[in-house]
């Protein structure tokens, strides 16, 4: 009797893949560091796609082997354009301010093959609340650390998330993930109709765009896994916002959080009691976060910040997901 080889094919474990980078072309040294990380990958891509908004010049740091495409300006719009432009069914989605170790793709692809995942991402603790500020996220029910190790990130009834308080030894399922670096099956991302959610780009900041992509995939039944021991670094600029950017950020947090909660959390309440509970928890989150914005506004002598947050919530409450703008 012929014995069939049950070992997975190397091409199945390490398939060809496309890299898709969303950028405004202004990251300079951070974009150069990203390109150096790509150059050093032990499993290189066979395609690099750089997505810019219409009218923006290509970054001078480009090597010349990239495909530059254009889309409407926005975190999700540019991500969608990259996914649609990719020529492979595996896509590595990148922001323009991240660097990573040469073995990144080996580790992510092995995890994807072993666990039958549709999306995998590296665990990066710097993207989670810092110990000194974790209590603020806790009282607003925006981010809660926990010990049980069945899921790495789990969505909360407020639209926030809970996360494992320490890195697991092996990859774990996850209900959501950050978007700075993730490997996904293109077919899965196309199937969840992200075009329905470009409303997120209408506010000044694309807050919640990554949660939309990943949680929507989770709700559709696609498997997401968080992968430990992959060295990545987020090369973000200063986290301190000037007065106008702080106002824009507050509006976007209020508006986008409200619409995300209505569209993906509240509608899943299948009884009147559950809907009431979801509404009560979300109301607490909105009010407590508003109080923190008030304190921040007083401290910075800029009440426009808390007013923008209130206006954002009112916009998210009264507008549908197709008509969101700060001047609404």
From TrEMBL:
Q: Which InterPro entries match?
A: Glyco_trans_2-like (IPR001173), Nucleotide-diphossugar_trans (IPR029044)
Q: Which UniProt keywords apply?
A: Membrane, Transferase, Transmembrane, Transmembrane helix
Fetch the SUPFAM superfamilies from UniProt: Nucleotide-diphospho-sugar transferases (SSF53448)
UniProt protein name: Glycosyltransferase, putative
Which Pfam families did the record assign?
A: Glycos_transf_2
Q: Is Cytoplasm there in the keyword field?
A: no
Ranges that cross the membrane: 276-295
* GO MF terms, alphabetically ordered: transferase activity
Q: Is S-adenosyl-L-methionine there in the keyword field? A: no
Q: Which organism is it from?
A: Geobacter metallireducens (strain ATCC 53774 / DSM 7210 / GS-15)
Question: Where is each Glycosyltransferase 2-like domain found?
Answer: 73-136
């Amino acid at each position: 009797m012929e014995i069939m080889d049950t070992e997975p094919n190397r091409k199945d474990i390490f398939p060809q893949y496309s890299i898709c980078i969303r950028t405004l072309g202004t990251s300079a040294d951070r974009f150069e560091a990203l390109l150096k990380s790509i150059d050093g990958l032990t499993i290189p891509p066979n395609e690099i796609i750089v997505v810019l908004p219409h009218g923006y010049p290509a970054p001078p740091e480009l090597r010349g082997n990239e495909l530059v495409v254009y889309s409407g300006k926005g975190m999700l719009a540019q991500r969608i354009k990259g996914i649609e432009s990719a020529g492979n069914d595996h896509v590595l989605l990148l922001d323009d301010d991240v660097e990573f170790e040469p073995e990144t793709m080996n580790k992510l692809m092995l995890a994807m093959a072993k666990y039958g995942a549709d999306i995998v991402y590296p665990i990066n603790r710097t993207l989670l609340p810092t110990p000194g500020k974790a209590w603020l996220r806790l009282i607003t029910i925006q981010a809660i650390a926990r010990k049980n190790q069945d899921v790495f990130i789990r969505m909360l009834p407020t639209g926030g998330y809970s996360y494992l308080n320490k890195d697991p030894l092996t990859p774990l399922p996850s209900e959501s993930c950050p978007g700075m670096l993730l490997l996904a099956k293109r077919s899965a991302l196309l199937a969840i109709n992200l075009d329905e959610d470009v409303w997120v780009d209408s506010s000044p900041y694309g807050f919640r765009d990554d949660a939309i992509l990943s949680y929507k995939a989770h709700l559709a039944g696609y498997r997401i896994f968080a992968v430990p021991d992959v060295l990545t670094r987020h090369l973000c600029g200063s986290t301190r916002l000037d007065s106008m950017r702080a106002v824009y950020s507050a509006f976007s947090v209020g508006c986008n959080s409200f619409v995300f909660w209505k569209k993906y959390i509240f509608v899943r309440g299948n009884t009147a009691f559950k809907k009431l509970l979801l509404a009560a928890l979300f109301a607490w989150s909105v009010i407590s976060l508003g109080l923190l914005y008030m304190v921040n506004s007083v401290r910075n002598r800029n009440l426009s910040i808390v007013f923008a947050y209130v206006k954002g919530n009112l916009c998210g409450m009264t507008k549908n997901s197709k008509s969101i703008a700060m001047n609404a």
